[in-house]
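Ticket #4471: complex job returned nothing on first submit. Input attached below:
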Amino acid sequence: MFPNKKVQTLIGQKIQVEMKGEKNILEGTLISADDYLNLHLIDTTEISNGERLRSLGSVVLRGNNIILLNPVKEQLS
Amino acid sequence: MFPNKKVQTLIGQKIQVEMKGEKNILEGTLISADDYLNLHLIDTTEISNGERLRSLGSVVLRGNNIILLNPVKEQLS
Amino acid sequence: MFPNKKVQTLIGQKIQVEMKGEKNILEGTLISADDYLNLHLIDTTEISNGERLRSLGSVVLRGNNIILLNPVKEQLS
Amino acid sequence: MFPNKKVQTLIGQKIQVEMKGEKNILEGTLISADDYLNLHLIDTTEISNGERLRSLGSVVLRGNNIILLNPVKEQLS
Amino acid sequence: MFPNKKVQTLIGQKIQVEMKGEKNILEGTLISADDYLNLHLIDTTEISNGERLRSLGSVVLRGNNIILLNPVKEQLS
Amino acid sequence: MFPNKKVQTLIGQKIQVEMKGEKNILEGTLISADDYLNLHLIDTTEISNGERLRSLGSVVLRGNNIILLNPVKEQLS
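Support reply: We reran it on our side without changes. The output follows.
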């Protein structure tokens, strides 16, 4: 399964995303993703060292500025 | 709805945009957007910690340098 | 009108451009632009806080490194 | 063998990846890669000077933000 | 004339190039350029404040990391 | 000869590569390159001021993060 298909399997789940221009991690529920990894998240919050900093609500992230993303659950295992 | 379609639904609304080369957030009314997330905003202002810094008027933003964008209203909810 | 068409309407006008690798703003007359927002400017100068720093003459700017551009006139309104 | 084919040969192996927005190296087992070098890794950990810092589990990395990647074994030879 | 065609007219001339990852300007004779603004320069030197720092000889520059380029002559006018 | 063809002529030679996310230069033998300038190098070492810092062995470099590359020999001339 290619990486963009892996991302499709995460729709509806909470994910964490590290962006190029952000010191903090974004956490939100993945609503949609396209092949460029552009993402639409809702209930998005900025997180720093496990602490919630800022609530951003519904955001669109530009795929080419994503460093990495991972599902919140799998991160715990 | 793919992320670029989500952005289309924001046309006519006030949005906030975080750019890669900008410390401050840009806020303006979205006039148009293409599939690369290139954006045309009017009544654009730079904002830092909720304070308006600089009025930029009509601006074109290059999509690949967008980190994230969100509608101003949804951010309040 | 899509953002790249908006840029086409600025040909012949003085514009300001913020580039990813530049602390200062570039101001010049827009001679041509393509769909990637690659730009050819003439009479280009670097500007910092309204002061002209360096005259660069005729320059080609790579579109993907543009953060934002705006017409000089509209900025005043 | 083109570079993207070289990456395909690393599937199932432990690799190290240096990302643009990461001070630390990521090490994980390569599950899949596409032609843009988007990668899906599992058992991913952040490494700094040979020390494991953080366990990230299953991650998707955006190809255009990869600086370099290499197989862990070949690095020892 | 589109920006990439403007660059074609500079083949054989000395140009200066500002790169995203370089503090210093590169100056060399333009041998070839493609539509992505990938450039092949010869007799390339790094320049800082008009002083020659390092001779790099024949170099290939990746177009997407070019901030701006301009002909050396036009810069003087 | 377009820049990507110039790079093809360097296959089998030692080259130096400056990457966007690397303070140090990478030096290695070029095994393959594609049109995006993705590179496969072997016997790669990190170099700082002419000193070898770290041996990386076989590495794949993502083309869009290359600032410049040049052949080691030509650099001496």
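The first helix of chain D runs from residue 3 to 8. Closing as resolved unless it happens again.
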